[in-house]
Amino acid sequence: MIKSNESVYREAPVFERLIRSLKEECRVDMEDLKTMEKVINLAEHFSGRFLTDTSFTNLKYFLVLSLYRMRLKKYAEQDSKKNSKYEMAGYILKQLSDFAGIEVMEEEIKFLGRILNEMRYIKKTTSNQEIVKMQVITRTFIEHVSIDIDLNLQGDYIFYENLINHLESMFSSAIQDNTVNSVVTEVLERYPKIQEAVQNNVSVLEEYIGRKLNEVEISYIVVHICAAMERNKNSTERYSVILVCNGGIGTSQLLLARLKKYFNFDVADIIPAHDLKNADINEADVILSTVALDTDMEYIQVDPLLNDEDCINVGKKLSRLKGSHKAISRPKVKEKPEAVHMKRIKEILAADTPPEQMVFQIEEVVNEFCHKEVSMPLLAMLPSEAVRLNVSCESWQEAVRQSAQYLLRNGCIEERYISSMIENVEKNGPYILVAPGFALPHEALNAGAKKVGMSLIRLAEPVVFGKPEFDPVEWVCCLSAINKETHLKAMFHLVNLFHNQKFRDEIRDAGSGEEVYNAIKRYEYEMR
Asked: Where is the PTS EIIA type-2 domain (predicted)?
């Protein structure tokens, strides 16, 4: 009925009554619907695919139906296959899982992917084809800004990922509105040094996009950096927080997931706005609310998706609290996700549960673990056999060719990918030099990459690429990317490793690829 072209369904009262009943049954109100709309919009920018207004509305109502169905533990069981919309579907359902506190099954992602395939789209951003180049340029921009503000933001993966997503969205079309909101204006006034650092280094981004960035675009980049600073400033202490959400469990779960990602928060309570007067606010350091409150108590109003302006406001509040907040014991060692999920599986096996139910519960835990991390770890992308030492090359072009041989032999790239990488550097300059003595050649997603992978070589004699601050180059790592994110965390960690002088000194003396692999393993673990 939702997808039907027959106007009777849209105009007849029966359709509106059906949707109203579903919203009541699903306990989804207007605030939650708006949050769902934001999730769809985030997914559009994530995938570079933008729905028509009609398809956007259809998808929103389809998700309302899906939410209702999954809350009843009725899951899709179709024998669907992965299609080109699989990643977009996975992104949406991961957000929906945080939003509603439900488990998302693999078949649900495939099913939604099929639904998305039937939707209509108005455009697809071209930036996705050169996403790796933008990721490298963004890393260089962060490095330059970090030097100017004397604060190392290069190790903050969350900031890196957020800024990439923001820039991708911004570069797809220039911002037309030449005004900024009051919060952004306040940020600019409070952090003049950050604004100056961005303006001094924005040419790195402008060279990539091929145009000047306007004041509004620069302002929002400043906000992203300031939000990262506030999050990092408060990363070593834990705080107790009360969440006030009028939208029910959905909005609160989504906000809770965001908070745990960005801050060291322990949630003392989650309450509706009307019950705030009965809450024991003395148990918390901070009150966060998704709605305006009729109270004299101090609180911070935030978006359920916790945007950068929210992070700055929360960070300001936490800075004022330092030294006076409630002491919360902090665990010395954080268990790895695989250990936590293995424990849960052991508990399920030890329980007196019927076999059918036991299998279902274990599947839920496994699915949760598998969908928790989209990016591949560095060690999985760069095995010891992909590392070659003392490779003789007379030019940077030959170094790029040699770095790609492992990927070519293993079917990760086509031959044309190699010549495209060389042409890329000849056309755009040696931007692929991203750390002292280290180059990261790559090409666009449509230039012959077939599987994700990395291949690292150490040159017998260093060669010059043409970037004085990082020349001569001793190490070259060829990257094969098939989408915008599978390789991202691995690339982020590898570049950070080569910025570590101690790491470079150690692998310079390595006698085998296995030794380099073990050094990466040890240093990457320390960075987590």
From this structure: 380-523
Burial class (CB in 10 A: 0-12, 13-18, 19+), 255: buried
Secondary structure (DSSP) of 109-171? HHHHHHHHHTS-EEEE-GGGGGHHHHHHHHHHHHHHHHHHHT---TT-HHHHHHHHHHHHHHH
| Structure tokens belonging to residue 522 | 């040890």
Residue among 295, 288, 355, 343 at smallest CA distance from 318: 288
What is the per-residue pLDDT for 34? 73
- Are the C-beta atoms of residues 168 and 125 closer than 8 Å to each other? yes
437: amino acid identity, one letter: G
Positions marked active-site: 442
Q: Mention every residue, 6+ apart, whose C-beta is less than 8 A from residue 35.
A: 99, 247, 250, 251, 254, 304, 305
- Quote the DSSP letter at residue 468: T
Tokens of 132: 């790796």
Q: Half-sphere exposure (CA, 13 Å, Cβ side) for 503?
A: 25
Bond prior to 377 in cis (omega within 30° of 0): no
pLDDT at 188: 83
Radius of gyration of the chain (CA): 25
Q: Is the pLDDT of residue 378 over 50?
A: yes
Please check whether residue 300 is in contact with residue 287, taking contact to mean a CB–CB distance below 8 angstroms: yes
What are the C-alpha distances in Å from 143 to residues 188, 231, 439, 495?
21, 18, 15, 11
With H, G, I as helix, E, B as strand and everything else as coil, classify residue 511.
coil
For 291-330, the pLDDT digits (tens) are 777 777 778 788 766 777 777 778 777 777 655 555 444 4
Which residues are registered as beta bridge partners of 526?
none
Of 393, 394, 477, 471, whose CA–CA distance to 442 is shortest? 477
Alpha carbons 252 and 267: distance in angstroms, whole number: 11
Query: Could you report the per-residue pLDDT of 269-281, keeping only the tens digit for each?
Result: 777 777 777 777 7
Q: Where are the beta strands (DSSP E) in 6-96?
A: 49-51
252 or 332: which leads in pLDDT: 252
| Of 183-197, 274-288, 411-425, the least confident | 274-288
CB 169 within 8 A of CB 50: no
> Which pair of tokens denotes residue 307?
């945007």
3-state SS track over 337-384:
HHHHHHHHHHHHHHCCCCHHHHHHHHHHHHHHHHCCCCCCCHHHHCCH
Q: pLDDT: is 237 or 191 the higher one?
A: 191
Per-residue pLDDT tens over the stretch 40-54:
888 887 777 788 777
Report the DSSP beta bridge partners of residue 398.
none
Q: What are phi and psi of 47, to 5 degrees?
A: -95, -15
Strand pairing report for 49-51 and 121-124: antiparallel
